[in-house]
Amino acid sequence: DTEVTQTPKHLVMGMTNKKSLKCEQHMGHRAMYWYKQKAKKPPELMFVYSYEKLSINESVPSRFSPECPNSSLLNLHLHALQPEDSALYLCASSLDVSDRQETQYFGPGTRLLVL
Amino acid sequence: AQSVAQPEDQVNVAEGNPLTVKCTYSVSGNPYLFWYVQYPNRGLQFLLKYITGDNLVKGSYGFEAEFNKSQTSFHLKKPSALVSDSALYFCAVSPVAGANNLFFGTGTRLTVIP
Questions:
Q1: Closest partner CB to A108 (pick from B43, B90, B101)
Q2: B31 Cβ under 8 Å from any chain A Cβ
Q3: pLDDT tens-place string over residues A91-112
Q4: Which positions in chain A touch B42 (Cβ < 8 Å)?
Q5: In this structure, what are the phi and psi dihedrals at residue A74, rounded to the nearest 5 degrees?
Q6: Where does the pLDDT of residue A43 fall: very low under 50, low under 70, confident under 90, or very high at 90 and above?
Q7: How far apart are the two ends of chain B, measured CA to CA in Å?
C-alpha cells in the first residue's frame, strides 16, 4: 500500500482564521514532506521531517507552522494567511530522507483558498 | 546544482499513437531521475525512476523512460497513447548530495485526442 491521505480536501479560510491541514501514512516511512503548488506550476518544497524532527525549512513564512506528532502523522498549522497563500498543499512521504534513491509518495492534496 | 528542464509546455497526440514527453537534466554526478503524473485536482502519482543500471526503465500504466547520459535526457514514452493518459507530467531530479528533496521541472501537459 502506497497511500498517503490528506484532510481536508478543500479549505476556505479568512485571513484571521487558524486552521490545520493533516497528512497520514502507514507505510513505515520516516521522512515526510510538505509542498506548495500554485496553479500550472511545479510543487515547491516547504518542509521536510526526518524521524519526526524538522530537517529542512525552505524559508517558509512563520504563518505556516509544521508539526509531526508521530511517525505517521504530519500537520501544517495555518494562521493569518494571505490570499497569495491560496494553493494546493501536497504532503509526501518516503522511506528515508537521507537516501535520494527513495521514491516520494504524494497525497491527493488540500486545495486552500484564502479570502 | 541540479535542475531538470521540460522544454514543451503542451504535447498533443492522437489516441493510439506513440507519445514522448521530454526531459533534460543538469546534475553534477550521477543523477537520480523521476517521472510523476498529476491528474486534474489530484496529487502526484509516481510513474518510474532511474537510479542505475539499464537505461530503459519501465513503469506504471505502460510508461517507460530512456536515460541517455550523452544527451542528458530522460524522456518519457508510451507506445500507444490513451485518452486517459491526458494529464500533467513532471520530471524531477534528486540532489547529488544532502536530503532527498525533489527538484521538479515546470511540467508538460499531455492531451490525447480521441
A1: B43
A2: no
A3: 999 998 777 778 999 999 999 9
A4: 108-109
A5: -140, 130
A6: very high
A7: 41
